[in-house]
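Dissemination and training. As part of the outreach component of the grant, students in the summer workshop were shown how a complex can be specified as a set of sequence lines and then modelled as a single object. The example used during the hands-on session is reproduced here so that future cohorts can follow it. Participants entered these lines:
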Amino acid sequence: MLSIQKVSKIFDSQKIVLNNVTLSVNPGEIFALIGPNGSGKTTLVKMIAGLLQTSSGKIIVDSFDVAKQAEKSKALVGYIPDEPSIWPYLTGQEFLELTGALFRMSAHERQAKIPKLLEIFKLSGLEQQFFDEYSRGNKQKFSILAALLHNPKLLLVDEPIVGLDPGSAETAKQQFVHFAKRGGAILLVTHTLPVAQAIAHRIGILKNGKLIAVGSLSELRRKAKLSVSAPLEAIYQSIVR
Amino acid sequence: MLAELFVLQCRRVGQHFRTHTGAKILTTMGFVLVALLVAVGIYQFFFAGFRYLGQDNNTVEALSLYFYEIFLLILTSLILFSAIITGLYSLYRSRQNHWLISTPSFHLVPKLSLINSVTSSFWTLAIVFLPATLAMRETFNLSFTGLIAVLFAFFCYVLIITGLALILILCLSKTLLWLGQRFVWLKINFFKVTIATLFIFSLFLIFSWRQSISTDLISLFRAENADVTIISPQSVSQPFLFLPSHVLATTIFAWQSNQIWLLSKLIALLASLVAVIIALWWHWSHSFLNVWQALQEIGQKTNILNRKKNILLNIINRPFTAILYKEYVAVSRNGRSVLWFFFLILIWLMQAIVNMTLARSLHHHDISPNFNSAVAEALQFITASYFMAAFVLRFVFPAYSAEGKTVWQIATAPVSFTKSFLAKYVFFSTIFIIIGTVFGAVALAGLPLAFTESFGIALCFASAILFITALGLSLGAIFPNYETDDPAVISTTMPGIAVIIFSVLYGAVGGWLIYQAVLFGLAPIILFCLFSLLGVISLLFLATYLVKRHDSGRPLFS
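and obtained this result:
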């Protein structure tokens, strides 16, 4: 579903943020990308979402080159940004409706799907409020729903549960698992290692722009030479150190 | 504490110049240059005007006083409206106030708001009032001490008007808070405070308008008769007696007519009023907290909107219409933008009213104006171009930069940059075509024009609107500024200055061509329209071509 081939990103001709990164995410798979601050995780996600260009390398989403067939590749992607910055003068309902329209959903399709989505986080009744009236958690919930609205094949999730209460965080995790079970692919960027450990099929560790380790939890444990019960936290500390 | 905050503010200015120093110094110099050019233009305008007034000793005093009354009344309306907008937002909506409100020094917020509103009104002193008084001094050979006294009087006047605006806002807020505690449906919110303040401002405008049009210039100055008698300044100032600008107009008149004692008395009066206003404001600033707290409560705007279903959303099925809707929402629901929009409309309206009043007066006395209509049409076009440039700079130029962190919503959707760019262009140019058509029709209504001339000039207005909008949107997209989402700050960049300079030059060229067309035939107008449309296409193409190739960590469209 997602293929990242030797991708590098250099800012202002000197600052190397990503260096020759290659990875892939298959349909039905949740791939968690973890790493220290400034390691290039969000930059990579932004390049897949089409917010930034690559300096070199290629990104393919379901056979579409992100650089050359942007409209086709974007139509398959749902993006949940690290910060739920949303047009402040829209209501929650309008935000979802406009997102649907931007992804070419008809009014009929949107009106059928939005009430069901609102039920996921029990947001029904709040959808007519303006965005600047929502708490950070509710803004995050709306941005998760917006990403799911057009039935994407690939979900790019950057810090999904920051600001969510424990119940909503659990709901969000369940949604991601259901999405993958239905055949969708997820690239999950997070610092919340227990979430990555709980739902990811494979985990990649990025440090200084380089992918220094990739594998399932048990593969990473072996690489880090840790016991079979070692949590991701310990694996991460061991590999990144 | 005020001193510490002042030092902090100065440090912020220093910090602003720490990055991209050269570019920022150049931008500042560019702005100073533009301001200087405008000031020189205003000086020349007033100098010529005062020299004309001074030609007839019988009418010079009365005509000058009438001019001061009208000029200061317009300036007062602008300062008052500007102070109301700045006051409302700096008192109740500035996020920077939150930390100050949480400290025991919360009462500094209204004090800082007064300082902020006064300083933001000083552009009128530097760009309009100073050149006007310098021109006056040069024409009537007046004393330098008097000039300083009049400038001091103006400073006091700005402080009084700004202080009154803030006092009005606070009084209305307190009244609404009191009423809201007794009647639930009157519960205070920012919208109600804004509407109440604007209602009082409208009453002031209506009263001023009625007073100023009650003067029949032709009768007063007996222009039909060759036998002109000396007109007393008192009869001229009679309708303006109850307007706040009258004190300042009389002060300037006292300087002109060398009445030192009267000048001193009026300055003492203005200074005393300043002291009273400041004392009142300083005293009330402690009781500001409960109003501020009440206005921070959320969940009020939803009630204003109060709708279950938005019909417009049902017809949005494509990205293009979705972006049109988003632009409509971004402009119409941003209270501050709406108020500035009406502020610009107000200035334009005043210019149109002055035109109409003069035309009405001439028409009423059946005097056929023997003036050069080519010059009048060219001037109307230049004025319209200038207003359009102001609208574009405030609303269109920041359209991309103001997206800021929210840019991902369109940028991650399967929508090409070209499509999103064109949607914005269609949205803004449609609004401006409507406004421009209304004001263009009003501006040309008083001129004796043939149908072909009117049609030609209407085409010029439309071309100018399309061109200036394309210029602002293109430069705003090519040079986005993601350091802030405040349109006022975004506009004060080098590309922003370029928009103003190019628009003014374009307006001047257009004005000259219209002048030529009225004298020698419509060919220059057709040429102008064709070149404008070619310019629009080139700008739109250039912007879409260049933005696709941007990337230095900035958001990028497909």
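The mean pLDDT of chain B is 80. Students were then asked to discuss how this feature might be tested experimentally.
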